[in-house]
Amino acid sequence: MKLINTYEETIKKSKFITYYYQVNNIDEVNNILNELKKEHKKARHLPYAYKIDQICKKSDDKEPSGTAGVPIYTVIERNNLNNVLIVIARYFGGIKLGAGGLLRAYSSGANNVTKK
After folding, report:
1. Domain spanning 2-115, CATH class
2. Strand order of the sheet with strand 48-52?
3. What residues contact residue 102 under an 8 Å CB cut-off, 6+ apart?
4. What is the rounded distance in angstroms from the CA atom of residue 4 to the CA atom of residue 112?
5. Is the CB of residue 20 less than 8 Å from the CB of residue 113?
């Protein structure tokens, strides 16, 4: 496992910290997720998506269904990425973004972290 890049942005007082990893197996994914959960104990959500060959998964981590994991995974697919995990820690800033706002925020984080 290798951390390739990070990206951080604040949208309406919510802080989004995006991590982009190269991974080779599910054990690496689980280890990274466990470490990030410890590191970001105060984050409200930790949605993610990964693709390792034919194995893929996306999680909204309690965000409204389809507003976090799906846009992250869409970026992975659109860029033909493989053996990758993208995780975004969200610290809620008190202003609800709505479904469209969440989709844009998670898409933005995933897009920006893969460009550097």
Report:
1. alpha beta
2. 2-11, 14-22, 84-91, 48-52, 55-59
3. 63, 64, 67, 68
4. 12
5. yes
pLDDT of residue 17: 98
Measured CA to CA, the distance from residue 36 to residue 113 in angstroms comes to 16
What are the domain boundaries of the chain? Answer: 2-115
pTM of the predicted structure, to 2 decimals: 0.96
Extract the residue ranges of the chain whose pLDDT is less than 70: 116
Q: Do residues 113 and 24 touch, judged by C-beta distance below 8 A?
A: no
Radius of gyration of the CA atoms of the chain, in A: 13
**How crowded is residue 75: how many other Cβ atoms within 10 Å of its Cβ?**
22
Burial class (CB in 10 A: 0-12, 13-18, 19+), 41: exposed
Cα–Cα dist 13/79, whole Å: 29
15: number of CA atoms within 13 Å, CB side?
A: 6
